[in-house]
């Protein structure tokens, strides 16, 4: 009987109302089993916010997230959408505009410290505005920042102050884009944590957001991170994340290629120069992945013979867990300056203006596309 009452008492977090679970640390409602005896019983995310002024990441899939956002358009809200500059298209929330309505959106572009210092930042903002426009997303402000180096956050806080007014602040983003760092900065600047955490429930949803009280009676609404399965960072084993996601500024690698040559990016991707005049290609890939050049006619056999060894993430023996590769062919028109983008792995800039036929090989399901050159 006592065991039954304890189970009932611990079914939901008393901080945010989420259903509690003890198995998956990166999902909503997690707490260690030893914490079930606490009074009150709160999930790890609420515990860290309340006791350490720190938010921790939890994740949901896209459908759950969009259900969670339903109704935000009818509220008086400011939305901060955090994206990863290294994986811009992969971390941009498609369809966000129809949920936020006329509420202002700040696009916080994180990890800008990864780009070369010679980057033209004004041109980069214009590039992002155009990409957002193509996705149907209207932005009130685009702020370039780096959570790792604490750059750009003062400007972001200024933008929040300018646009917030009497609004609650919703923070949204995919996993591994730096959302927790931003939440923690907002908490330290705006929040009065002497108040109790409350819950924000939307009709028809099974997940609850966490509302962090602000000094003026409004809230920061911390939403779960979205898991996008087309990002390479969601496919690899956690111990291989460091090989895929760069931690240091990118060092562009320029290759002069003839028709019929191939580049392997470790064992995680392959670029074929199928047809076209001799020209250069610049690879913006994590420096921990070795790039191996070979002839296109030898590429298939080389991969079969050396995958998981020479062609692998550093120290990886887990290649067989990835989905089989899929080939994507693209024709680059004359005069166009294009990137071949691989979600979560980086991009290859086509430097020549004579046109080319190229192909990308990556695990099935990874998003691959062409876009106007970012840099």
From TrEMBL:
GO terms for molecular function: GTP binding. Residues 66-229 form the CP-type G domain. It holds the Pfam family MMR_HSR1. InterPro entries: G_CP_dom, GTP-bd, GTP-bd_ribosome_bgen_YqeH, Mito_lipid_metab_GTPase, NOA1/YqeH-like_C, P-loop_NTPase. It comes from the Bacteria. NCBIfam families: GTPase_YqeH. This is Ribosome biogenesis GTPase YqeH. It comes from Paenibacillus etheri.
